Amino acid sequence: MGRRYSIGGPWVLRGIDLELPEAALVRVGGPNGAGKSTLLRLITGTDAPTEGRVTGRPRTAYVPERFPAALPFTAAGYLTHLGRVHGLSRRAAEERAGHWLERFGAAAHADTGLAELSKGTSQKVAVAQALLAAPELLVLDEAWTGLDTAARAELDRAVRERVTAGATVVFVDHDPARLAGHEDARYTVAGAGLHPAPLSGDPKPSGALVLLDITGTGPLPPQLPGSPQELSWSDGSRTLSVAAEHSDDLLRALLAARPPWHIRGVRPA
Ligand SMILES: Nc1ncnc2c1ncn2[C@@H]1O[C@H](COP(=O)(O)OP(=O)(O)OP(=O)(O)O)[C@@H](O)[C@H]1O
């Protein structure tokens, strides 16, 4: 699928082909403005792709980057209301609301209006609303930001519980250590494409290097797969060196970049 925000405008994402397995924790990384939030909105169905489509309809919950806090509810009232929307009885919805506020250390604010909550407590409510309905697909866009240490650890635990229960959790977080060692897949958004990235526990590259001779204009896209080294640079021509196992992903990223890079040659180092 692909997404651009205006006709004739730049493609924020293009050629995205992603399958999300069950019972999996999936991290999406990439620099500011690369299109991570756009991708998460497409995955949740809160935004539609400009081309291509998203298939499958798991029960989905989403913590967006910006939570709309100014709704006329108390924290507990809001969570109970959402529980009812998800089909729970009033009593079950109240119980779940209380349970999640308690777990995130926000029980004292159950009767506070959403508009009066501090930023951090409001974020706790945002996270609680997503966990409340035991979603099959949980999508977290920097959901840890603003939470205190205890709540961040609690969210880590809640995420692992969801995955153990068979759910798919897709998350973006700027802390590279977040849930490290628990991820099943990692992707980087760069140059409008989505690129598989090595997991923290993956074996180190075997040592074989590949050289790529490329030409193009402007700087190289950030966070290229395999973190290639630039060996030479003149008049827009460059030679990159990368571990052999990353060369296919690197070629794809260079070709998908906007503007694309031209590949003049690929050779063993
Ligand atoms: N609703 C929108 N209308 C127009 N352009 C948008 C819209 N949402 C995002 N964009 C543009 O799409 C690009 C990707 O934005 P997005 O928020 O998806 O990036 P991101 O990787 O999540 O960034 P960050 O790490 O800063 O949150 C940016 O250039 C942004 O300006």
Q: Which properties best describe this structure?
A:
Rossmann fold; ABC_transporter-like_ATP-bd; 3 domains; six-stranded mixed β-sheet; 6 helices; alpha/beta; ATP-binding; binds adenosine-5'-triphosphate; four-stranded antiparallel β-sheet; ABC_Transporter_VariousFunc; single chain; 269 residues; 27% helix; hydrolase; elongated
Fold blueprint:
Elements: E1 3-4, E2 11-13, E3 24-29, H1 36-44, E4 60-63, H2 75-85, H3 90-103, H4 119-131, E5 137-141, H5 149-164, E6 168-172, E7 185-190, E8 193-196, E9 209-215, E10 229-234, E11 237-243, H6 247-256, E12 262-268
Parallel strand pairs: 3-6, 3-7, 4-5, 5-6
Antiparallel strand pairs: 1-2, 7-8, 9-11, 9-12, 10-11
The structure holds adenosine-5'-triphosphate.
Adenosine-5'-triphosphate binds at residues 5, 12, 30, 32-38, 65.
Organism: Streptomyces hundungensis
Keywords: ATP-binding, Hydrolase, Nucleotide-binding, Transport
InterPro entries: ABC_transporter-like_ATP-bd (IPR003439), ABC_Transporter_VariousFunc (IPR051782), P-loop_NTPase (IPR027417)
What does this structure look like?
By secondary structure, this protein is α/β, with parallel strands linked by helices. Helices cover 27% and strands 23% of the residues. The chain has a 6-stranded mixed β-sheet with strand order 4-5-6-3-7-8, with helices on both faces. Strands 10-11-9-12 form a 4-stranded antiparallel β-sheet, with helices on one face. Strand 10 and strand 11 form a beta hairpin. Helix 2 runs parallel beside helix 4. The radius of gyration is 21 Å and the shape is elongated. The relative contact order is 0.16. The structure holds adenosine-5'-triphosphate. GO terms for molecular function: ATP binding; ATP hydrolysis activity. This is Putative ABC transporter ATP-binding protein YxlF.
